[in-house]
């Protein structure tokens, strides 16, 4: 099974790409593709359309378009579930010790990474990168 991890602009700016990839590999994920890009406002709005009616939507779009992001296609048994475990809680303060967000996130907005939360989300989100 495959999943998608997106390294967000905050982690890219802090030069954490290599450390995050290392964590993926150390946790048994096989890297199947990597692509760096900068979302346009329109792409970002489509990528995060499930949040369009929420108060934080505008701030999220401003953040995700503020710099480069890195999409990483990974493969592992139960990849979506296992990747979400490795990523940790959306709020880095609540994230499990050793998770990506615990280690590299600052707050709910600047939380280092995004991971597909379902097969449906993966199928929609992967097309933004691959």
Topology record:
Blueprint: E1 2-7, H1 9-13, H2 17-26, E2 30-37, H3 41-47, H4 57-64, E3 69-75, H5 79-87, H6 100-104, E4 113-115, H7 119-125
Antiparallel strand pairs: 1-3, 1-4, 2-3
Note the main attributes of this structure:
130 residues, alpha+beta, Alpha-Beta Plaits, four-stranded antiparallel beta sheet, 18% strand
Structure characterization notes:
- This protein is α+β, with helices and mostly antiparallel strands.
- It has one domain: Nucleoside diphosphate kinase-like domain (Alpha-Beta Plaits), CATH 3.30.70.141.
- The chain is built from seven helices and four strands; from the N terminus they run E-H-H-E-H-H-E-H-H-E-H.
- It has a four-stranded antiparallel beta sheet, sandwiched between helices.
- It is globular and about 35 Å long.
- The protein starts with a strand and ends in a 5-residue tail after the last helix.
Instruction: Return the average pLDDT rounded to an integer.
Output: 97
User: pLDDT below 50 for ≥5 consecutive residues: which ranges?
Assistant: none
- The tally of helices reads 7
| CATH superfamily descriptor | Nucleoside diphosphate kinase-like domain
Order of helices and strands: EHHEHHEHHEH
The top level CATH class name: Alpha Beta
Structural class: alpha+beta
Q: What's the structural domain tally?
A: 1
Taking Cα atoms only, what radius of gyration do you get, to the nearest Å? 13 Å
CATH topology: Alpha-Beta Plaits
Adjacency order of strands in the biggest sheet = 2-3-1-4
């Amino acid at each position: 099974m495959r999943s998608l991890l997106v390294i967000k602009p905050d982690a890219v700016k802090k030069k954490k790409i290599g450390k995050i990839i290392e964590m993926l590999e150390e946790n048994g994920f096989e890297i199947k593709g990597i692509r760096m890009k900068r979302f346009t406002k329109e792409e970002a709005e489509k990528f995060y359309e499930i949040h369009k009616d929420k108060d934080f939507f505008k701030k999220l779009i401003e953040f995700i378009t503020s710099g480069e992001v890195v999409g990483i296609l990974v493969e592992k048994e139960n990849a979506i579930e296992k990747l979400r475990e490795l990523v940790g809680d959306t709020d880095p303060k609540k994230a499990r010790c050793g998770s990506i967000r615990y280690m590299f996130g600052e707050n709910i907005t600047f939380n280092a990474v995004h991971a597909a939360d379902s097969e449906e989300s993966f199928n929609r989100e992967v097309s933004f990168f691959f």
